[in-house]
Design goal:
This protein has 603 residues and is an alpha/beta fold. The protein has 4 domains: 221 residues, GAF domain (Beta-Lactamase, 2-Layer Sandwich), CATH 3.30.450.40; 165 residues, Rossmann fold (3-Layer(aba) Sandwich); 83 residues, Helicase, Ruva Protein, domain 3 (Orthogonal Bundle), CATH 1.10.8; 40 residues. Helix content is 40%, strand content 13%. It contains 20 helices and 19 strands. A hairpin with a 6-residue loop joins strand 14 and strand 15. Helix 1 runs antiparallel to helix 2 and helix 11 crosses helix 13. The chain is elongated. Keywords: Activator, ATP-binding, DNA-binding, Nitrogen fixation, Nucleotide-binding, Transcription, Transcription regulation, Two-component regulatory system. It comes from Pararhodospirillum photometricum DSM 122. InterPro entries: AAA+_ATPase (IPR003593), AAA_lid_NorR (IPR058031), GAF (IPR003018), GAF-like_dom_sf (IPR029016), HTH_Fis (IPR002197), Nif-specific_regulatory_prot (IPR010113), P-loop_NTPase (IPR027417), Sigma_54_int (IPR002078). One of its GO terms (molecular function) is ATP binding.
Length: 603
């Protein structure tokens, strides 16, 4: 038969009364996502969801709205899932929550948690039962555990929670899926505290809607990643299939560009081909490879040569000043704006705008810049008049933009907008035959500036030709100027170079940093076995030894109690401060203090 509840207008189908909760220890039940039976223990009427078990329609709608905003705001999946769990923590009075997703091998792994350490959950310290979650994905059915302490699969996991002695912990797990088989789970842990079965069923329906949104987001993220990998493989295949020139490239290098190597000739040919067009150019290369010089060459070889060439270093200005610098501002738009000021886009009208270090701009400003690149329109800061400009854009960066897009630090649509014609500038170690020419060029420049007539010996040029110069042309220029300044004779010998006296600044920098990652866009320095630095420090900035494995679930309790006492003492025995230190809520730290029988001190 069908029942209608006047307080909660849902059509509910009566089902087998055996599934109703009875006295005694609770047992795990699986539930369907279809309409549920009423709880007749309250006089035959279905109770209205309380703030513990569920919210009214407006709160549920607001919560779903906030979750949809989070899932659609970034490509950083782990961060967005963690934010979703934090919202659910407030909405469902949730203590701990876990999201698991299947990897390439089909095995579930923890990707986001709240109320515990992500590292501890992944390494098994939290004793989270992935086997039980695998049952949820295998059956594609939600799972409700009314008392985790009474279920052998969840006993150890329940013991890791911050609870009072007589607290009953319940768990709800819902599969994450789209139109295919489930590929993950969303589980939350709640305090039972008189919660009715209907309220658990209400939570299951709500969590199912949340997992539908998560499923679509995960599927989209995986599709984007697969397409990106496919494009990279296709690009590599096409580059490999391109016919190699049988003869070396010939031709003249660009004006003011020193070199005769094949690498610099290839760049010169690309610049001459690209310059006459209006296409946006992205200059890629390590720091010190001469990206601004190439940008100027593109401008002066283009039909816009008689128009302005405006350059802006995006990393040199904070976001608010960068917006005013590029778009200009109206009089009185902010403190200090005593007059109207044109921005760099207006000043570059008809010419070329060079945006150096474009990879350093914030995601918020990236959206503003994208509109100008797409529409050619913008408004000054504090103004409402739309201005149109005709600007040829050249950008440069030493940052790995592809990695930044994957991490959600750089907008994918802006990446595609500026990466129309990429030109990769070679590092100096890839054009060693140009080192003597560049060294002589810088020495001639020094002689002219300082009225001297210095020259290099063959031995000195040979030493510099074998240096990798991780700082590229800029480092070579500094090396030449340093040697010329300290030279006491007209001929600079090899023993006059800093590297011959262990005073090379670049070598000192690399020995202190290690061999892991590039520094500020510089290259990797070659390190011999004898000069190899210490191992790379860990992500948190410290390099502690790890002689013992992490504690097991049975050994973690004394360490947890000691950690609580240390946090309370540091916070002056103020629970709210200690909670912030441990990343907990005041209620959670209250449970923890009771669990470990830690008496409060009055200072």
């Amino acid at each position: 038969m069908w029942l209608h509840d006047a307080r909660n207008p849902l059509l509910l189908k009566n089902a087998d009364p055996r599934v109703r909760p009875r006295g005694g220890p609770a047992s795990p039940r699986r539930t369907k996502e279809s309409p549920v039976m009423p709880d007749t223990s309250h006089g035959g009427h279905t109770p209205r969801p309380s703030s513990q078990g569920g919210a009214d329609g407006s709160l549920a709608l607001i919560t779903m709205y906030e979750i949809s905003k989070i899932l659609g705001s970034t490509l950083n999946l782990e961060r967005s899932l963690r934010d979703v769990l934090n919202i659910l923590s407030s909405y469902l009075q949730m203590r701990r929550g876990v999201v698991t997703l299947s990897d390439d091998a089909g095995l579930l792994e923890v990707v986001a948690v709240t109320g515990m350490s992500l590292t501890g959950a992944r390494e098994g310290e939290a004793c989270f039962p992935l086997e039980a979650m695998a049952e949820v994905t295998g059956t594609a059915m939600p799972l409700i555990i009314y008392d985790m302490a009474g279920d052998p699969r969840f006993t150890k996991y329940a013991a890791q929670a911050y609870t009072v002695e007589d607290d009953i912990q319940s768990l709800i797990a819902v599969p994450i899926k789209t139109t295919t088989r489930p590929f993950g789970t969303l589980s939350i842990e709640r305090h039972r505290d008189g919660t009715t079965r209907f309220q658990f069923e209400h939570d299951v329906r709500f969590l199912t809607m949340v997992t539908n949104l998560i499923g679509q987001t995960v599927a989209l993220e995986r599709k984007v990643a697969a397409d990106r990998d496919r494009l990279f493989l296709e690009k590599a295949r096409l580059e490999k299939a391109l016919p190699r020139p049988e003869k070396p490239l010939t031709g003249k290098v660009l004006e003011n560009v020193v070199g005769r190597s094949q690498a610099i000739l290839r760049v010169s040919a690309q610049v001459r081909q690209v310059a006459p067009s209006r296409a946006t150019v992205l200059l890629r290369g390590e720091s010190g490879t001469g990206k601004e010089l190439i940008a100027r060459a593109i401008h002066y070889l283009s039909p816009r040569a008689d128009k302005p060439f405006i350059k802006v270093n995006c990393a040199a200005l904070p976001e608010n000043l960068l917006e005013s610098e590029l778009f200009g501002h109206e009089k009185g738009s902010f403190t200090g704006a005593t007059s109207e000021r044109k921005g760099r886009f207006e000043l570059a009208h008809g010419g070329t705008l060079f945006l150096d270090e474009i990879g350093e701009i914030t995601p918020h400003f990236q959206a503003k810049l994208l509109r100008v690149l797409q529409e050619g329109e913008f408004e000054r800061v504090g103004g409402n008049r739309t201005l149109s400009v005709d600007v040829r854009l050249v950008t440069a960066t030493n940052k790995d933009l592809e990695d930044a897009v994957v991490k959600g630090e750089f907008r994918a649509d802006l990446y595609y907008r500026i990466n129309v014609v990429p030109i990769f500038l070679p590092a100096l170690r890839e054009r060693r035959e140009d080192v003597p020419l560049l060294a002589q060029f810088f020495l001639d420049k020094y002689n002219e500036e300082n009225a001297r007539s210095l020259r290099f010996s063959e031995a000195a040029l040979d030493v510099m030709g074998h240096c990798s110069f991780p700082g590229n042309v800029r480092e070579l220029e500094n090396c030449v100027y340093r040697a010329a300044t300290l030279a006491q004779q007209d001929v600079i010998q090899d023993f006059g170079l800093s590297c011959r006296h262990d005073q090379c600044l670049s070598a000192t920098l690399w020995k202190r940093r290690g061999t892991g990652k590039a520094i500020g866009g510089l290259a990797h320095a070659p390190v011999t076995e004898a000069d190899a630095p210490d191992p790379e420090p860990s992500d948190h900035g410290w390099d502690f030894p790890d002689p013992t494995p992490p504690p097991s679930c049975d050994e973690a309790e004394p360490e947890e109690r000691a950690r609580l006492i240390a946090a309370m003492e540091k916070a002056g025995w103020v629970q709210a401060k200690a909670a912030r230190l441990l990343g907990m809520t005041p209620r959670q730290i209250g449970y923890a203090l009771k669990k470990h029988d830690i008496p409060l001190k009055r200072l």
